[in-house]
Design a protein that fits this description.
This protein is an alpha+beta fold. It has helices spanning about 1-20, 65-75, 90, 110-125, 130-140, 150-155, 160-175, 180-195, and strands at about 25, 30-35, 35-45, 55-65, 85-90, 100. Strands 1, 2, 3, 4, 5 and 6 form a 6-stranded antiparallel beta sheet that branches.
Length: about 200
């Protein structure tokens, strides 16, 4: 099954990503466009055996602008190249499984067809994320803690104090009282005062 997995990556997955401008390094596929780095990672499960290979597909986008904002927030500390948008494929392609599984009983034609279809759909979804604002909007819709501080600073930096306040209220409602919200509120008030 390990060899079959390698063949699928080499003969089917790699050509699909190559058609969309992605370069391959190990089980990572990456494409740079402007200030964004789009990436896919194929993560093999730790419990794989000779007769059963399982893997996940992680989807990621790194934003240079959000990285600069993180550096400002952290007091100028250099942030390693990390993903600002990150999810498993099933989060953006509802028909995709939470993990893929290859066994001797797997119908390879159906497996490959579905895998490639899911990857095409994920590439298309990510192609529509074209700016740091799109990444921020993705997480704001989910009221996610991931990137919450960066989102808040991004909104204030771009003069969108109304949306920043609404976002803060949503965070309060979902996660309750936390010290960080008071810090966000203080920054929002000082941003409004300096804008006036």
């Amino acid at each position: 099954m390990q060899e079959l997995f390698k063949e699928i990556i080499k003969n089917e997955v790699k050509p699909l990503f190559a058609r969309h401008g992605y370069a391959k390094k190990a089980l990572n596929f990456q494409r740079v466009e402007g200030g964004l780095i789009y990436g896919f990672n194929i993560q093999k499960s730790q419990g794989n055996t000779a007769n059963h290979v399982r893997f996940y597909i992680n989807c990621m986008i790194h934003s240079k602008e959000l990285a600069e904002l993180q550096s400002t927030i952290s007091g100028g500390k250099t942030m390693e190249e990390q993903s600002h948008f990150t999810c498993r494929i099933e989060e953006i392609v509802p028909s995709a499984p939470d993990r893929y599984s290859l066994t001797p009983d797997t119908d390879l034609v159906t497996f490959s067809k579905e895998l490639l279809s899911h990857l095409e759909e994920a590439v298309e979804y990510m192609r529509n994320i074209t700016s740091p604002r799109d990444i921020v909007e993705y997480y704001m819709k989910r009221t996610a803690l991931h990137l919450s501080e960066e989102t808040f600073h991004f909104l204030l930096q771009n003069g969108d104090t109304t949306t920043a306040q609404k976002y803060l209220q949503l965070l309060h409602a979902k996660y309750g009282v936390e010290n960080r919200w008071a810090i966000f509120e203080k920054k929002s008030k000082s941003s409004k005062a300096s804008a006036a």
